[in-house]
Specification:
Length: about 375
């Protein structure tokens, strides 16, 4: 098993390099950039994602030193930016140097990888704060949404899936399946808007707060008051996110239990006189829950990093989803690539943890033997 883990860890290196390289290449051809955003701000036309005019197929981020004519290429430099007319070409070159675009693309990529290998993510282009501190600042919101949504969806899907398997084909199984499918089909952001209209002062009642993770008087509250206030703010966003999240887990749980219930060892256990509860939870549960439990780390990471952007925007929750989106729009490349690197690395680690969870739940599974 140690050899398998070592191989998986080593495979993460080329995988991360491939992800970062492909993303870096795509960025080189994406319109706009931090230099153009500064120019747009100076011209009073900042849109957060301005476009680019390439000079002879060149990239705006190709670096001032790479321009034909050496130091005499200042006019050519300014011509590569839409809206740069009237600005000092030397000022444009200073911007390129400030953002590191005065060096060739391959040098910038290699430096980025070397820095990221040491978890040095630099500073944000447009915020006076390091990228790591910025991510840590947004982390509590994303952890809250991802953790509680995953726990809530599992708390609903596992008992419901077991019940549906035991009563397979009954009216209960039929109408609960309809409810699950309808819930899965409703977009979370639409349900979030409905919750705001109904319960957050939209048109009817105002039982829940509309923005933030805590109240303004958080520091003055007692421990119990802080807990209540915390979940009071999370109630609507978690409900909106969890609406369709438990559908897949519910059906997966049901099918896993149905598959195990029909096996010979279950029939034998019943013939020995064991009660239905002893058969179900003493024999079937561990085998049937293998796939569901092993998928928990991946489900948490999926909820942690994906699907929360619209919910964070609607409920004014400043988390990683909103940070990533704003960074992409504003071409804040250090934040964009740092998020990509961290998310990709965590995803690879979680996949390994999921595989190890399989072997922990069922020791009969041996990935090392299967690879051989």
């Amino acid at each position: 098993m140690l050899a398998y883990i070592a191989r998986r860890l080593l495979l993460m290196i080329p995988t991360i390099l491939g992800i970062m390289l492909i993303s870096f290449v795509i960025i080189q051809f994406a319109p706009g950039g931090p230099v153009e955003r500064i120019i747009a701000q100076l011209q009073g036309q900042d849109t957060g994602a301005t476009s680019r005019i390439s000079g002879g197929g060149g990239d705006f981020s190709g670096g001032g030193q790479g321009q034909p004519g050496g130091g005499g290429g200042a006019d050519a430099t300014s011509s590569r930016y839409r809206g740069a007319q009237g600005l000092d070409p030397q000022f444009i070159q200073q911007l390129e140097t400030q953002f590191g675009f005065d060096r060739p693309a391959h040098e910038r990529f290699l430096k980025m990888i070397w820095d990221y290998a040491r978890f040095d993510f630099g500073k944000s282009y447009f915020r006076d704060i390091s990228v790591l501190e910025l991510i840590q600042e947004k982390l509590p919101v994303s952890i809250s949404l991802g953790l509680w949504m995953t726990l809530l969806s599992y708390a609903i899907s596992v008992p419901l899936g077991i019940r549906k398997a035991v009563r397979d084909g009954s009216s209960f199984d039929t109408w609960t399946s309809a409810v699950v499918i309808i819930g899965y089909a409703i977009p979370g952001f639409l349900f979030a808007i409905l919750l705001i209209v109904l319960f957050a002062g939209g048109s009817f009642w105002q039982f829940f707060p509309l923005r933030g993770l805590t109240s303004d008087n958080w520091e003055q509250l007692s421990l119990f008051g802080k807990i209540v206030d915390y979940f009071w703010h999370l109630a609507l966003p978690i409900t909106a996110m969890a609406l369709g999240a438990f559908a897949t887990s519910t059906l997966l749980t049901k099918n896993s239990f149905l598959d195990e219930i029909r096996k010979q060892y279950v029939i034998t256990a019943r013939m020995k006189g064991l009660s239905e509860g002893q058969v179900l939870y003493g024999h079937v549960f561990r085998n049937a829950m293998l796939i569901v439990v092993a998928g928990f780390p991946g489900a948490f990471i999926g909820a942690f990093f994906a699907g929360s952007l619209l919910i964070e925007t609607i409920f004014s929750l400043d988390g990683l989803g909103l940070l990533s989106f704003e960074s992409i729009v504003n071409r804040d490349y250090p934040v964009v690539f740092a998020n990509l690197y961290i998310f990709s690395l965590l995803g690879l680690v979680v996949n390994l943890v999921s595989d190890l969870t399989y072997t922990w739940i069922d020791p009969r599974i041996d990935f090392e033997t299967r690879e051989a």
